[in-house]
Request: fold
Amino acid sequence: MAVQEKHRFDEQALARFMAANVEGFTPPLTVEQFRGGQSNPTYRLTDGAGRRYVLRRKPPGKLLPSAHAVDREFRVIAALNRTDVPTPRAYALSEDVSVVGTPFYIMEYCDGRVLWDPTLPDVPREGRLAIYRAKFESLARLHLVDYAALGLADFGRPGSYVARQISRWGKQYKASETEKIESMDRLFEWLPANLPANDETVLVHGDFRLDNMIFHPSEPRVLGIIDWEISTLGDPLAELAYLCMLWRTPKDWNGLLGHDLDELGLPTEAEMVGYYSTLAGRAAPEPALWEFYMAYNLFRVSCIRQGVYARSLDGTASNVRAAESGKLVKPAADLAWSIVANMAGASR
Reply:
């Protein structure tokens, strides 16, 4: 779409920066804005030779602490360019606010498909399983990366990931809270009191899901994983469960719950957990542990949605549908608490 008024910047200043910092760039520059990108405004750039790039920048306005870390995004993408994890090529990072008004980076434009609907209606039934396998294969590759060898040993703190995430997102939730939600208050108490004992550390994306991947135009192959803003060192099971929330959330949340998976040619949650575990060389998680991670992730989703919703109220959200995020805060929290209640019932 055309660049939103609130996200406009000096395009000539950007063209001058690219001429000096992006090899092969040819003026003039054309700028468009992607409709997606809940957190950081994202733009498609086209140069005079027809080459395309993507620009990700911090949004203007008052921001939550530690949010919108485009410098971290650039660092991890540049490091992963040296591995078999599919990532766009990282070109340049700028923290000079005189160029576009906020820090930004430029990366490769991957010319492929973004698959928004998990039922894959535009993919033939016989090709859908391969798409699912490709995204779980990409996750396993990421979790097998030697992050220290890539110079990312200081990219986060090893261990206690879930505890720190609950604290971090909880603080951001409270900073953007717009109403009291009983199930959220209960989760704030229950989750820290029931933390898992496992402490494995891997490099995690932080928002690993279908629509944060660019697929090849015709093959079941991931060209690039995008939106690395909240990547860090973390718990592989927490990230796996985040991807698998798809099977626990209903159709109107764009989930798979309520769909006939066999008719659609789609795998079950258990099948994909087993597939990932084999690829990553890990044992499948115990049921109680797995349910904890599900509840934790739904809590985290509520916190993230609340932040997006709050930004829509103050006008700094980049996504035109950001205001809709507020509608899912309470339902996600309620679903998380129902999982906790079921766990408690099963243990009696």
